[in-house]
Design a protein that fits this description.
The protein is α+β, with helices and mostly antiparallel strands. It has 16 helices and 23 strands. A hairpin with a 2-residue loop joins strand 1 and strand 2. The longest helix is centred in the first third of the chain and has 19 residues.
């Protein structure tokens, strides 16, 4: 899309917003092409890694004399009401609805060439599918609804054999799905040099995929991962979708990458980055798994939340991602509209004091223990800058900033954030104030008040002076403008609270896709506003603060990292929880993060939509477009 076209589109929304403020009922036609438009884009490549939230069901192998037993542990999840299944539509698909989103990401359909950070959208918009599907509103993996009609774990836990469904067509007449497509898609995502958004997590445990016959494939474990079903299912994110290998062979990787193809219930008609995506019901709605109730879905790029509100009020769009504080006024302005909770894990909004990379060059020089030893990792980390320009970064060696002074700086920054006020104002009170990065919440029985550090502006100023910065200092604060979780208004409010502390805060609001690569392998030294995850208190925690990647802004010492990896094999649930408590104690004692509030995200649904039933997933992704019914 040309710069003029992009500017014109955004000016349209600004004019619409102005008309709303003057209470003029103005409907602005967006228009939509009916031809297939594929825009070639250039995307910065990221290094492998992922900030994925996973499972609430954990299966663990227990070795007993003469046999192997799989123990299933059901872990309590964050309470979110189960979605109501949309009524079954009668007749074929009909009608159109429009979805307003923060960002229409580029088409990057070859997994290894991706990495924009929101590739789940391709599935959310109905174009691609995953290997395993769960029944709606549950975590029951159903072979009758999956590309894989069966899966069997080998007795030695070395591999899983999948039998594939026959007769699944790819869009645009690119043939039928077979073992070649599955093997290529999976191996492509985890190949060396892959920038797939989930590569880092998958490469830790997934070794390779091999074809057995045309409809049978084997997945081999590098290290057994009990969550493999969840990770490969529609309940997860950061998992590879199935793309036609023939398209890659015929078009080449670069051209295939910008060619939206899949096996989903909706087929792409138009795709313009940062503008619009149009999909229509595939094969007249006769999809093998899901029968769409709606014929056409248009996804409009509307980055500004006020502009999305304006478009929703005038009926230009039917569903929007909404800021919680705006829900009440939109319900009043649009009769018949309602809020729909994004199903899945709530998100703690968290500030990362990035740059505190305290890991040793190797915790273990044995290459077999790959989590402890990555020979290509650069040390010291490029973002480890414990100097006067980064006073929050401590140096364990004592050469740079002292650990004591840097801790006081981080404590002061924490104490300057009025978290309850942020929750009540910016987030509309729809959440829970928290102080734990590691998934624990105040209602949990394991909660410790010692993890909290209350708002105290005079105390924060005193700590700054004690650390040698009575007049403050200047620093950059990254706040993504287009992330599905990040609330840019909250980021601006945090920056203002720090300014009241006497600090000179410069906000970096560059696009998430360009900023995200800095966060891996210790390349970043800028304080970030990001998120972590709640629930599943006995699962592995803090995996993004170790030698494999530093996505959450720090690198923990070897003894703390070891607890993360111990939870991959520890059979006792209580012990796993205790390991996570030790990790949280360490992070709270050192104030490596500032958890602000645990927030449930919402969509606003307009009166034109008679039914929509999203499914559980980690994040505010639009899901199940096939269940949308329009009046």
């Amino acid at each position: 899309m040309s710069w003029f076209g992009y500017r014109h589109k955004n000016m349209k929304w600004l004019l619409l917003l102005t008309s709303i403020s003057l209470f003029s009922a103005v409907a602005v036609a967006c228009g939509g092409d009916t031809e297939t438009v594929i825009q070639t884009v250039v995307v910065e490549k990221e290094v492998p890694g992922a900030d994925v939230v996973q499972t609430v069901i954990v299966e663990k192998p227990i070795q007993l004399p003469g046999e192997v037993v799989v123990q299933t542990v059901v872990v309590p999840a964050t309470a979110v009401p189960a979605p109501t299944q949309a009524p079954t539509p009668t007749g074929g698909p009909s009608g159109t609805f429009k979805l307003g989103v923060e960002n229409v990401i580029p088409p990057l359909f070859v997994p290894a060439l991706g990495g924009v950070g929101h590739e789940q959208d391709y599935a959310s918009w109905g174009m691609v599918e995953f290997l395993i599907y769960a029944d709606h509103g549950t975590e029951n993996y159903n072979p009758a609804k999956s590309i894989a009609t069966s899966w069997n774990l080998s007795p030695d836990f070395s591999k899983v054999r999948f039998t594939l469904r026959k007769g699944i067509p790819f869009h645009k007449d690119w043939g039928e799905l077979s073992a070649d497509d599955v093997v290529w898609s999976m191996n492509n995502a985890i190949r060396d040099g892959s920038t797939f958004w989930g590569a880092g997590g998958l490469q830790q445990w997934m070794d390779r995929w091999e074809k057995v016959d045309d409809f049978t494939v084997d997945m081999f474990f590098q290290d057994y991962n009990a969550n493999w079903q969840f990770i490969l299912s529609n309940l997860s994110t950061h998992q590879p979708w199935i793309y036609p290998k023939k398209a890659v062979d015929d078009l080449g990787e670069d051209r295939a990458n910008v060619t939206p193809l899949g096996t989903g219930p909706f087929e792409n008609v138009t795709y313009r980055t940062n503008d619009i995506v149009i999909v229509e019901a595939f094969d007249g709605g006769n999809h093998w798994r899901a029968k769409p109730a709606v014929q056409r879905m248009e996804v409009l790029d509307i980055p500004d939340p006020l502009a999305r509100n304006a478009a929703f009020i005038t009926g230009e769009v039917d569903v929007i991602a909404v800021l919680n504080k705006d829900i009440a006024q939109l319900k009043n302005r649009v009769p018949g509209s309602y809020e729909q909770a994004a199903r899945g894990t709530d998100w703690p909004h968290v500030v990362f004091f990035t740059g505190n990379y305290w890991g040793a060059e190797s915790c273990d020089t044995d290459p077999e223990t790959s989590w402890k030893f990555l020979p290509d990792t650069q040390y010291p980390r490029p973002g480890f800058q414990p100097d006067s320009d980064h006073p929050w970064i401590g140096d364990p060696s004592g050469v740079g900033n002292s650990m004591e002074s840097a801790l006081k700086i981080r404590q002061a920054l924490t104490m300057a954030i009025d978290r309850p006020t942020l929750l009540d104002t910016v987030f509309g009170g729809l959440g829970l104030s928290t102080a734990a990065y590691n998934g624990f919440l105040p209602p949990d029985p394991q909660w410790k008040d010692s993890w909290n550090l209350d708002y105290d502006l005079p105390g924060a100023k005193a700590l700054l002076a004690e650390a040698g910065y009575p007049n403050g200092f200047e620093f950059t604060f990254y706040v993504a403008p287009d992330h599905i979780v990040i609330n840019s208004e909250a980021g601006a409010a945090v920056a203002q609270m720090w300014r009241e502390l006497g600090l000179d805060v410069k906000i970096d609001n560059s696009a998430y896709a360009t900023a995200r690569p800095r966060h891996f392998l210790g390349q970043d030294d800028i304080i970030w506003y990001a998120h972590s995850g709640t629930g599943n208190l006995d699962k592995q925690k803090a995996g993004n603060m170790g030698i494999n990647n530093t996505f959450h802004g720090a690198e923990l010492p070897c003894d703390i990292q070891a607890l993360y990896w111990a939870n991959a094999t520890e059979l006792d649930q209580e012990k796993r929880i205790q390991n996570n408590i030790v990790i949280q104690d360490y992070m709270a004692d050192n104030r490596l993060h500032v958890p602000i509030a645990n927030i449930t995200d919402y969509f606003m649904v307009g009166p034109k939509v008679a039914a929509w039933s999203p499914h559980k997933i980690a994040g505010r992704y639009f899901t199940n477009p096939e269940t949308v019914q329009v009046k």
